[in-house]
Design goal:
Blueprint: H1 2-14, H2 21-34, H3 39-50, H4 57-68, H5 85-95, H6 100-111, H7 117-127, H8 138-148, H9 151-167, H10 172-206, H11 227-255, H12 262-268, E1 289-295, H13 301-313, E2 320-326, E3 330-332, H14 342-352, H15 362-373, E4 381-386, H16 398-407, E5 410-415, H17 429-432, E6 438-441, H18 445-457
Parallel strand pairs: 1-2, 1-4, 4-5, 5-6
Antiparallel strand pairs: 2-3
Helix pairs in contact: 1-4, 1-10, 2-3, 7-8, 8-10, 9-10, 11-13, 11-18, 13-18, 15-16
């Protein structure tokens, strides 16, 4: 227990709670005097000795159950045991209408099966939970695991299953009972994922070396950012852009001579008897022409906003940039950046196309681009897509995407999701991927900076 208390105190410090060595010693002494058998007394003894600022109480309350939770994981109910033989037959027949993954998930909900530790660890590995060292990641990591398991599709499947059972003649009251109980089990699974995410993050915080900066915004996932974080990152973008401009300008200076021009060299050296004393090179246009298409939906807003900030800050290294934004449709937004900072420009765009979780339609947006701005894409254009490839089951219009990629010089896709999530749920990323010259993961500002460097240096 002493080691657990030390880990708890370390995690509190990592979360910003100031705890002196004397206060830590007081906590151990209080626990020794009052014991650990009564959970509330134990909790009160720690809070009294460790927390001296009321503003730190919420952090204490969030972390305490992650280290000292004696309760079991959220309970689930086994519905299959309550079914009559006829109901079981109808249910088995109805489940055959779903694909293997949904059938497995629905079966888990019917039997009340929680996720095993191995399954949780595998999900955590897929989403990179080991990189999280701040409780602000907790909700985002939990949502990523839910997405990997297709929770949105599962919720829709529960409703479809209820409708199928009703059509088969199952008693309406019984159908509603099953639906509500399955939804309760689905909520319990979500709670289990949230609890797991919190425990893993707390564990990482408890092993954080003293003095390590927990405000490393460069490596914080975009979806875990707050509005105040974004304001700080906009200032950081200016600093990083200045560094990149210098680095890229030096590379361009070294490469500006271009390829050897044999014909021009021969003509120019006729006066020297065709002895190639002076070498001529073809002019090389080393500043790229960009067409950037950015997803501004809720899950992508911060990533796209910072990408646009970078492009705005590095215009001297780009021959021409045409910026577009999309959610349910495409809009040309380059004029919005005239005499405005990127954050203000994005806010102006969002007033015309409010952000949302489930109205993204990249396929329709590609159609808008082809219909109205096809002349902007040519053999000198680098086409950039900033998005997670999730299309809400709308037509991805692969035909239009393929046409655009063939027409452009190269196509770069910046995606915040790890490859393990591509193709899950409503993701069309695996279908788009073969036509891209490069796909770069940009889940935080550090990765986005690296992607910009590669993009403008190729």
């Amino acid at each position: 227990m002493d080691e657990r208390i030390v880990q708890f105190i370390t995690a509190l410090r990592a979360a910003g709670v100031r705890i002196s060595l004397a206060e830590s010693a007081d906590a151990f002494q209080a626990v020794e005097q009052l014991g650990i058998h009564d959970r509330e007394t134990f909790k009160f003894s720690l809070r009294t000795t460790i927390v001296k600022d009321n503003g730190d109480i919420p952090v204490f309350e969030e972390l305490f159950p992650l280290f000292f939770n004696t309760a079991s994981t959220p309970p689930m109910m086994n519905l299959s045991e309550t079914l009559s033989p006829e109901e079981a037959r109808q249910l088995a027949k109805a489940l055959q209408e779903f694909n293997a993954h949904l059938r497995q998930m629905l079966g888990r909900l019917l039997k009340g099966q929680q996720l095993s530790q191995e399954e949780l660890d595998r999900l955590g590995q897929i989403i990179g939970i080991n990189r999280a060292n701040d409780l602000r990641y907790r909700e985002w990591m939990s949502r990523q695991m839910q997405r990997a398991l297709g929770f949105r599709e599962v919720r829709e499947a529960i409703q479809q299953l209820a409708e199928l059972l009703a059509q088969m003649g199952m008693n309406r009251q019984r159908v509603e009972q099953l639906r509500h109980l399955m939804q309760a089990n689905e909520k319990a699974l979500r709670d289990q994922l949230d609890q797991y995410a919190g425990q893993r993050i707390a564990e990482k915080m408890s092993h954080q070396p003293p003095g390590e900066d927990n405000e490393d915004l460069l490596n914080r996932p975009f979806q875990a950012l707050s509005e105040s974080d974004i304001k700080k990152l906009h200032k950081e973008v200016q600093r990083l852009a200045a560094i990149l401009r210098t680095r890229i300008a030096l590379r361009q200076k070294h490469a500006k001579s271009g390829q050897l021009d044999a014909k021009a060299t021969i003509r120019h050296n006729l006066k020297h008897g065709n002895v190639p004393i002076e070498i001529k090179h073809r002019d090389r246009d080393i500043k790229p022409k960009l067409v950037a298409i950015c997803d501004l939906s809720t899950s992508m807003r911060y990533c796209s906003e910072l990408m646009l900030s970078f492009l705005h800050a590095m215009q001297d290294q780009i021959s021409k940039t045409h910026a577009f934004a999309f959610i349910s449709h495409l809009e040309y937004i380059s004029p919005d950046f005239t005499n405005r900072d990127p954050a203000g420009a994005v806010e102006l765009v969002l007033e015309r196309m409010p952000s949302g979780h489930y109205n993204t339609d990249l396929g329709r947006s590609l159609k808008n681009l082809v219909d109205t701005h096809m002349d902007l894409v040519d053999s000198r254009t680098t086409l950039i897509i900033v998005g997670d490839g999730r299309n809400n089951y709308n037509n991805p219009r692969l035909d239009l995407f393929n046409m655009l990629t063939r027409r452009s010089r190269r196509t770069i896709w910046l995606n915040p999701e790890p490859p393990a999530l591509w193709g899950t749920g409503d993701s069309d990323m695996l279908a788009y991927a073969p036509e891209c010259n490069s796909i770069l993961q940009v889940s935080n500002l550090a990765e986005l900076t690296s992607a910009i460097d590669k993009l403008l240096s190729a």
